[in-house]
Amino acid sequence: MSEPESKNAMKKRLKAEAAAKKKAEKEAAKKAKEASEPAKAKKFVAGGDDDLDPTQYYSNRVNAIKKMEKSGLNPYPHKFHVSHRVPDFITEFANLEDGARDESKTVTVAGRINSVRGQGKLYFYDLKGDGEFVQIMSDLKTYESEEGFGEIHRSLKRGDIIGCTGFPGKSKTGQLSIFPTSMILLSPCLHMLPKKVGERDAITDQETRYRQRYLDLICNNDNRKIFEIRAKVISYIRRFLDERNFLEVETPSLCLLPGGATAKPFKTFHNDLSQEMFMRIAPELPLKKLIIGGLERVYEIGRNYRNEGIDLTHNPEFTTCEFYQAYADYEDLMQMTEEMVSGMVKQVCGSYVIQFSPKPGAPEVEVDFTPPFKRISMISGLEEVMKIKLPALDDPNCDKKLAAILKERNLECVPPHTTARLLDELVGEYLEDNIVNPTFITEHPEIMSPLAKYHRSKKFLTERFELFVAGRELCNAYTELNNPAVQRERFLEQAKFNADGDDEAMCLDESFVVALEHGLPPTGGWGLGIDRLTMFLSNKNNIKEVLLFPAMKPNLEEMAILAANKPKEDAVDLNAKKFPACPPTVFKLAGEDEDLGSEHGMKQLDAALVGNTFLKGGSPSAEDAKLFKQMEKMPREAVEWFGNVKGWWFSVAQFSEGVRGMWK
After folding, report:
1. What is the distance between the alpha carbons of residues 237 and 302, in angstroms, rounded to a whole number?
2. Is the pTM of this model over 0.70?
3. By three-state DSSP, how is residue 302 classified?
4. Which of the ends of the chain has fewer CB neighbours closer than 10 A, N or C?
5. How far is Cα 421 from Cα 442, in angstroms, rounded to an integer?
6. Could you give all domains of the chain from N- to C-terminal order, each with its CATH number?
């Protein structure tokens, strides 16, 4: 049984109940009064909706644009005449006095709103155009109408692209401004843009910046400078070569054979020709054909494509400049390289000395491009640093000895362990990684340089150089090999490496050898990576920073789009395919007659070609010519059914019928 309530407790309770009742009555009276009176319009403040949820912001914006269109306004006009780019406006009117307006001149400027503030009769906008900013200071007195003033400022948001007509002038504090008589929305931004906070960029997430480069350029204005530097690099190279009587040319990006470099190519298929084709890995071979044709100084700035890894310095598609000069050698090219690269650095950066951070988070190093550049002969340089004598390049056990040296020093080389790959691993570890200032690594072994001319005085070496800066290759050049017989031997040697599993080895291009047989003059050839040079001059250690649209692994959203838009012909069930019908094609393999028109016979041929470029090993024979002639009658699909047979077919096909007829 509960105790009776005391008098004091009762008084407190009654008092509290009375106060609560009085408060409730007061609130009810207030609401009744508000309901009976017309609602007061909320005072408009520019930029006041930036704290909304992005989804709600987008919805509000879409509805506002629809409302504009219903009222007869066009938020996407076709044209707006611009009298001044923003940078030109700044240049022309920068010397106006503080507080002055030049109402004798009417200007029209367009750009994107970077920020907006103000209310009532005065609004301020920061307008961005061509990477520069100018203030718009809009007041009711200057504007063409009060109705138009209120309407335009209620409709504009941060990120919108607008046109502005008005007078140039400066605010009382000296801020160069446009005082508009009219403004127009040219294209609304429907999404809420990220904001810069203090010194921190508006967008710092790399995935977002690379996938949505347009958003990166809108919000992070300084990143525009990277691509301005890139444009200056290309412009400087083009001007440098044009002044030396070079002719700029264009060569095919789609090739029947991938040549001109040691790299794995991208494959594609030409439907009309029913032909497998490749994206070019380098323009070298067609450019040298032009030298043969009499265009004695040619260059090309363009894209190359290599089906290799993506990392800080590699992208599957990249931009290079290659030039070829008749009657020049690699010594001439080293001098030209020093002159071009050092001059470019001085012009773009204002000094030969730049700061560069080699890796993310690594401290900056000072790189001095003052000519002349240091030179290191590859083999003797390795021996000096490693303090050992490397095996002779003609030693039949050279591969095994080099592999043992790598194992002893805890270094790994990606298979296959060819001489070229093993040496490249040592060069990377002991020479390239220790270079800071521009340095030429010269005189590469022939085994690493199938298109370079043999050294005139050093056996098994070539007249070649690579320019390295801060551990990264920037340039590659050599005296060109112009002896067709030696070139054919080099190609066949590369084909053997390809058969051994080196998918970066070059294939045999008989058409190029035939071109050489018409006479290539003594020639120097040169190539430079535009992307990597831009990285140095903009102090970026990730190649994605200097590419507007770098290669990225598709995210889930992109994968869904790809799946939804996949062409029907790509969706064929490969497991359901059958070996095509072929006419009987009998050929003797290992002493036994095999019908290559059957899947079993073709499988036997594929097995016989394992590890071999041709039927009898690394060199072609009359047997290859005979078999090729028989198989020409078979469907192409059957010829390409098995990988080794397909590789053999393309190797033999590079030789003309006349050359095949001379095989023994």
Report:
1. 13
2. yes
3. strand
4. N
5. 17
6. 54-187 (2.40.50.140), 226-373+468-478+488-546 (3.30.930.10), 575-660 (1.20.1050)
